[in-house]
Amino acid sequence: SSSSSSSKNNSSGIGNIIGPRRSFRLASCASMKNAELLHLASVQDASSSNPSSAGGAVLYGLAKEIPTEETKKNGQENAALVRCVIPPFAPEHDRHGPSEPALLTAKQLATVKKTSFHSHEEECSKSEHVCLKKNDSIFGLMAAYRPSSKSGGGYDDDRMDYEVDNNGGDGDDVGGHVFLVLVASHGLIVCRDDNPQHQNDDSNSSNVVDPAPSLVHFAMKSSSQSHGHDDSLSSVAVSPNARDLAVGRATGRIEVLDNMFENVAIYFDDASQKEDKEHPEETTVRRTVHWHAHSVRALSFVASSSSGNGNDGFANTSSLLSGGEESVLVTWQLDRNFHRPSNFVARVSHGAIVHVANCPYSNKVYVFCSDDTVQCFDGTNYVCVWKQRGLAGMALSHDEDEKEGIGRGAVIVVKDPITELPMLTNLPGAPGMVHWYDPRSASVVGTLEVAPYNRVSRRDPTDPHVPAPTVTHMAIGENGKDLVTVDTVWTENTSVGRTHDPSGPRGPAMNACTSIKFWSHVDSSSIKRNKSDQRKRRNGDVPMGYELVSSMAAPHGRNGEVCALAVSPDGSAACTLSREE
């Protein structure tokens, strides 16, 4: 931000909390002339509970060269694991304004190399590159900091030496190690940076490559029989004390690698020959649990600060949170009864759980779902503290419907005469719902469920999912009292609706049933709300005052599709058109 805006923030006290905002642009990195950052991770020392907002930070990222016509023809793909140092903020020396990003120098730590299926294990054993299979890609990057041991480099005295933070850090401690975990669909790579406090002196130009860091590959072969199903990795989490690592799989299984970082550190510091050393994957104990029926998309360890101000680090991690397509937040106790969940929070939202984060200082759990909702839960009793809902622009089915030849159509927007707010339906992340969106608060302030459906329709990850409903048309009268919608729902009952023959391997054909529904507005002041409705409103679920008056299935016959809808100004009549009649 500019100096004038920074001074304004500082005068109000806000700048001392959030600090000045700056923008950066990645400069050339080694052999990559024009690169972009795909993933970012940083570390923070637990002893610094209130770091200065003006301090610098050490960032790690996965840089990928932007492809050119030449590289596309040759099939080349250059990527590398890099380290970036953001300098401390100095207003008197900062000449870059908001429109002129500062150059961010990246130091290459290791290159990413794609290998064939037959030579993959051989290349991984060399530990010279981050080796991936040809059809594999990195979807996660985590960073864990371990300070130097004061007792002479031993790893057995203190199992609380690690610290993890993906949101920022200053990296003031000298002489420690940073462990980086790169997670791909079919394995993970652990890298140790022995020189995290790399300064931007003259010898550290972007063209100088640092000595190769220590690398070790984990094949992460499934410990259970997957029966030919996709058992790839889908999520990852590092414990706050950086002792354990948890991974989720596409089959719904969760594996916790006990003492993984300690075993990796011992492996790196062992002076024996590589062929004489025991691989850390063989010495690491894996515990497996299974509750989710579908892919585990979010994992997060739960830990509380060991003291009131958090200056002494984190207490022993005792819980693990998981979530996925079922939209159920599951709690696992790591110290007892780990084979089954200890707590459930069902129906967190209308979409799948995508991210879960825990704040150890405030004991709050934050959940982000694919329907663009952010919720805060109390980590003690898992009561929803607040909920913020945005426009659900993220598709829930990962474009599976488009692959099967099922079109979702465009988003429909009409103005509500009563609230004077836009009403949106057919949003990718909220199928079968109507949202009232307030541009001033940039949030959804009301909802109406037009077409309910079962969001978890598969018993097995390989089973085809039932397509989500679609609100194809919506119209409202001038006074806002009468609302008419047309929706299409999918059913396995072949005796109703029109038959749709999918182009993909969905299995048995499903029928699409079209319905027209008439809604009437009810004055909210005349509705007696119970405690359940009041609790829903506090949690952000605000159903609008519309009641279903009448519904008609197949208004233009079994095979007729509605192509247009109109409502009279007074709302007393509605008209639909169809090309089949």
Helix content: under 10%
Strand count: 35
What distance lies between the first and last C-alpha atoms, to the nearest angstrom? 61 Å
Rounded average pLDDT? 75
Major sheet characteristics: 5 strands, mixed
Q: Low-confidence segments, ≥5 residues, pLDDT <50?
A: 1-18, 46-53, 150-174, 199-209, 307-315, 398-405
Strand fraction: 35-45%
Please, could you describe this protein's structure?
With 581 residues, the chain is mainly beta. Mean pLDDT is 75; it is low at 1-18, 46-53, 150-174, 199-209, 307-315 and 398-405.
Key structural traits:
35 strands, 581 residues, 5-stranded mixed sheet, 8 helices, 5-stranded antiparallel sheet, disordered N terminus, mainly beta, single chain
